[in-house]
Amino acid sequence: MEGVGEEEMEGVDHLAHERNKSEFDVDAMKIVWAGSPHAFDVSDRISKLVASDPGFRKDNRSTLSRKELFKNTLRKAAYAWKTIVDLRLSEEEAAKLRFYVDEPAFTDLHWGMFIPAIKGQGTEEQQQKWLPLAYKMQIIGCYAQTELGHGSNVQGLETTATFDSQTDEFIIHSPTLTSSKWWPGGLGKVATHAIAYARLIVGGREHGVHGFIVQLRSLEDHSPLLGITVGDIGMKFGNGAYNTMDNGVLQFDHVRIPRNQMLMRVSQVTCEGKYKQSDVPRQLVYGTMVYVRQTIVADASCALSRAVCIATRYSAVRRQFGSQNGGPETQVIDYKTQQSRLFPLLASAYAFRFIGEWLKWLYADVTQRLQANDFSTLPEAHACTAGLKSLTTTATADGIEECRKLCGGHGYLCSSGLPELFAVYVPACTYEGDNTVLLLQVARFLMKTVSQLGSRLSSKKPVGTIAYMTRVEHLMQCRCGVQRGFAELSADLVEAAVAHCQLIVVSKFIEKLQQEIPGKGVKQQLEVLCNIYALFLLHKHQGDFLSTGCITPKHAALANDELRSLYSQVRPNAIALVDAFNYTDHYLGSILGCYDGNVYPKLYEAAWKDPLNESVVPDGYHLYIRPLLKQEIRTARL
Length: 638
Ligand SMILES: CCCCC/C=C\C/C=C\C/C=C\C/C=C\C/C=C\CC/C=C/C(=O)SCCNC(=O)CCNC(=O)[C@H](O)C(C)(C)COP(=O)(O)OP(=O)(O)OC[C@H]1O[C@@H](n2cnc3c(N)ncnc32)[C@H](O)[C@@H]1OP(=O)(O)O
Ligand SMILES: Cc1cc2nc3c(=O)[nH]c(=O)nc-3n(C[C@H](O)[C@H](O)[C@H](O)COP(=O)(O)OP(=O)(O)OC[C@H]3O[C@@H](n4cnc5c(N)ncnc54)[C@H](O)[C@@H]3O)c2cc1C
Hints:
It is found in: Peroxisome. The chain has helices at about 5-10, 15-20, 25-35, 35-50, 65-85, 90-100, 105-120, 125-135, 285-315, 335-370, 380-405, 420-425, 435-450, 475-480, 490-515, 520-540, 540-545, 555-570, 575-580, 585-590, 600-610, 620-630; strands at about 140-145, 160-165, 170-175, 180, 195-200, 205-215, 230, 250, 255-260, 265-270, 275.
C-alpha cells in the first residue's frame, strides 16, 4: 500500500487560519444551535461517546452486501440498547445516541411510531398493558399503514377488520394483492407486533380506517404466526443508505385478535357489537403522522447542516485558478458563484433549526389543548406540520445534492459522505406523506380560511400563522369560486402553500432574533443569515413578487445588491458557523468535511483501502483482461 507520512495525517489544523478570522463567539453559537446549555451538554457528550466506540463504526457500509449490512445493523441496535441500559441513559440521551449512531433501523419505527401510536390512540388501559413491554423492548413494533395499492389515500386502504361478536374478536384480512401492507420499516424481518390500519366493519357496516395491535411473530422463535405472511420488499436506492432498514410486505389471512386490541381512544366497539365515537375528532387517528412530521422538520436542519458543513469546509480547502506570481490559487469558497450557492443553504440550515424548535412548541401546545378537549388549533397544527415537513425535506434533499456538486468530483466519492446522506435522506420527501399531497392539504386549509374571510356567517378572525390573511386585501377578491375550482388550480395552489410555509419560516426566524441571544457577535451573525434566507427567497421568486406588484424592479435590484454584500459578511465567519453545529468527524462521515481540513492525504489513504485495491492484479484478469489483450477473446470461455 502507498503510505502517507504520519505528520501529514495528524495534528495540523489546515483550517486554523479560517477559524482565526471569525468575528463571533463560536461556543455561544453552539449553545444557540443546540437549543440550551443542557441540550448542548447532552449532545456533545453522547456524540463523543459514539465517536469513540468502535462498536459504532460506520465507514464500511457502502462495501457490505445487503445481508451483511442488515446483520451489522441488528448488532448495532442491540449494542446501542446495551449501552443505553448499562449506562442508564435518560430518554433524551438515548434519543441522541440513536441520532449519532446514524443508521436507519427498526428501532426508529418502534420508538418513533409504534409507541407514539399507542400513546396517542390507545386508552389508559391499553397503554398500561402495552407500553411497559414496548419500553423494555420485550416486544418490537412497527407502523403498518401503507399498502401496495394505497399510501397517500389512507381512506382507500383495503385491509379489513371485521368484528365477530361470537368470539369477541376482530378478523384482520387482506382481501386483495393490493391490500398487502407494503413499506412499513422494521416489518420485513424484525417486528413482533404492528399497529395495522384497517377498515373497521361492525355488523356489516363500515366505519373507516382504524388502528389495531396485531402480533406478527412468535416471541419464542420469531416465526410468523398463523395467517401471517411477511418479508422484506427488497433493495432500495443507494448502496448502504436506507438498506439497513427492513421495509416489509405483510398479508393477513383471517387473523384473529381480541377486541381490546383495537386502539380505542378515538372510537370504541363494545362486546355487543356497538360502534361508539368519542367526542375527540376522528382525525386523531392520523395523530401519529402529525407527531412524526414534526420530528422530521426538527431533523431536516441536522441533515442539511451536515451537508453544508462538509461543503463549506471543503470549499475553504479546495483551490482552483487565480494564482498570482506563483502564489496559492484561489480558495473556491471565495468565488461569488460558490457563495451564492452555498451561503443560502447555510442560512437555510439555521432557519430550519429554529422552525423545528418552534414546531415542537406548537405540537406540545396542541397536545396540551387536545387533552383539555380544545380542538380549535388542530387544523392549523395539521397544516403547519404537513406544510413545513414538505418545505424543509424538499429543500434539504435538494440542498444535499447541491452540496455534493459544490464539492466537484470528490463529492461523488462515497468517502465524501454526501452520496449516502442524499440516498438516506431523499425518501423523507415521500414518507410520512408525499410532499405534494401534503402541500395540497395546506392549500385546502388556506382556501377554507380565505373563503371564510369577511363572511357574514363567520365571526372568527384568522389567528396564529394565518393572521396575516386579514391584511392581504386582494385575497378578498379571490374568494369567489376557488373552492369549486380547487382541482383545476391545484398546481398554483401548491405554490401558494409553499409561499405560506416560507412566510412562517421567515417570520419565526425574525421572532427568534427578537429574543435575547448572548455571546459576542452571535446575534449579528444570525441577523445576517436571516436576511440572506429572506432575500434569497425574494430573489429566487422575484418573478412572482414583480408580477403581483409586491415589489418594483428597483426593489428587486436592491435586494440582489444587498444579498451580495451579505455573502461578503458571512465569508470570514463561514467555517466558524459550521463549527457551531459541533459535529464529530464520526458523525459527519466525510473526508471532505473533516474538522482539520487535511483532505488530500486522507482521500489518498482511503482509496488504498478500497476492496478493489486488495490485490494489484484484479480478480478476473486471467479470464477477461488477458484474453482481450492477447487477442484470445474468441477462444476464451466467457
Ligand atoms: C437503539 C435505541 C433507540 C433509542 C431511541 C430513542 C428514540 C428514537 C426516537 C425516535 C425516532 C424518531 C423519529 C423517527 C421516526 C420515523 C421516521 C423514520 C422513518 C419514516 C417512516 C415512515 C413512515 C410512514 O410513511 S407512515 C405512513 C405515512 N402516510 C402518510 O403520511 C399518508 C398521507 N396521507 C394522509 O395523511 C391523509 O390521508 C390525507 C392526504 C391528509 C387525507 O386526505 P383526505 O382524504 O382529503 O382527508 P380525509 O382523510 O378525508 O380527512 C378529512 C379532514 O381531516 C383533515 N386531516 C387530514 N389529516 C389530518 C391530520 N393528520 N390531522 C388533522 N387533520 C387532518 C383534512 O385536512 C380534512 O379536513 P377538512 O375536512 O377540514 O378539510
Ligand atoms: C423509505 C420509506 C419508508 C416508509 N416507511 C413506512 C412505514 O414505516 N409505514 C408505512 O405505513 N408506510 C411507510 N412508507 C410509505 C409512505 O408513507 C408512502 O409511500 C407515502 O405516504 C406516499 O404514498 P404513495 O407511495 O401511495 O404515493 P402516491 O400517492 O402513489 O404518489 C405517487 C405520485 O402521485 C401524486 N399524487 C398522489 N395523490 C395525489 C393527489 N391527490 N393530487 C395530486 N397528486 C397526487 C404524488 O404527488 C406522487 O407524485 C414508507 C415509504 C418509504 C419510501
